[in-house]
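dude i think i finally got it to work??
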Amino acid sequence: MLEGSILQLLETAHRSTVRPIHFGVYYKNTLVALCHALEDHILSDDSTPLVITAFQRGKWYLQEAERYADIAKNSRQIVIMAAPDTGFVEHPTSQLSNVDLIGLDETDPVAQEWHLIILSPKYTAMVLCQELSDADYGARGLPATDLERKFYGLWTFEPTLVSETAELAIAHIQKYNPELAQKLSAHQQAIPPAIINPEDLSTVVSRVVDYLQTGQEQLSIPTTMRQQALDSNLLSNEVQAFLRMAQLMELGDINNPMAATEVSAIAETMAQLLDLPAWQIKRLKLAALLHRIDPFRTAPSVLTSSHTTNQQETAPSCPLVPGAQVLRKMPRLRAVAQIITHQTEHWDGTGEPAGLVGDAIPLESRILALVAEFQWRVNQQKSSQQPREEIFAQALAECRQQSHRFDPKLLDALTLLVMGLQQGLDLPLMTTKASTGMWLLDSRWQSQNQASEEMRIYP
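look at this
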């Protein structure tokens, strides 16, 4: 990581914090798909964001200059950093009143970085990467094609992190143009902190996944092994898009900010008690991490009509839960979407969306429904002065009072788990870390139960 680069400054600032930053390695084709998706969202949205970009060299910007002329129409201000090449300043886009160029020195570490920082009143988004050095490529040497160039960094929708990175970028711009930096700081302060609407976030994530999938379809690399590497990088980022979405849902819930993490941990332990196979446990854990993504829910708990106001008015008429639909864009997540869709079914058949009864409800959905209810009830009591053992016992008793909703065998399993918790059992808490997403996938998911899913959902 180059000393003095924006990536390095951000990593240093978070190194000793409770939330260190996790970086990944991205092929150029993945970054192109990510950036085009986020740029196109600017074109389709009316929030006029502040946009700060870095293209390494002017020639890379010139390939996108016409596109940025359109983006400028929907932006309050755009700043483009790059080591200048011929035509960098002269291009018509560069002459627009709300577009400013920063010609980076050849020795500037930011000239090795690829940035797209978007600050909008509706959402924030960022791609922040640095190209690997020649030595980093190792024995295989430099890549054979441009699309195989590799970058180290991250992408995120998290408002605090995006805003912090924007401040670092503006501070770097000040070295070249103090007046512009002052104007950018004023723009940033004028943009209210982004309170991300789940529907807006769902739209952004859906577009990112679409572009990543299109990138997979358009790959044309000479050898199968190299194509598989690029394809895998795109696939990994599709999963990361959903995990980042779930992470923001967590951050937006001040009353239960660890719900997905804790539900995932409890679900994993429950699945182990039930002796489920490893692939099914992985699938359940991922469903638990993503189980709150439905933007149409109105309840503080994601589980049940008993916590939802006006449930009959807000329930979708289609048997598919709208929020889970975005997961179906990715074939390997269709089984996860099924689990999330049916987590509101009831054991006696009175639930939604399909009115399934008993064992017709997918097992993972039954586990998720019970575990999520239990976690929610425990969380409700955390501020009380009750001992931990009593909180667990009360939450379990309240779950048992709703026996019409839950599989009795799972209630018995939860009772065993609560006994363990009361005796000091530690749960394997796992943060919603996007970089862990790929290992949660298993190739068997893609077709597992797909036929039965179609029969249940499309009667």
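The radius of gyration is 24 Å.
im so relieved honestly
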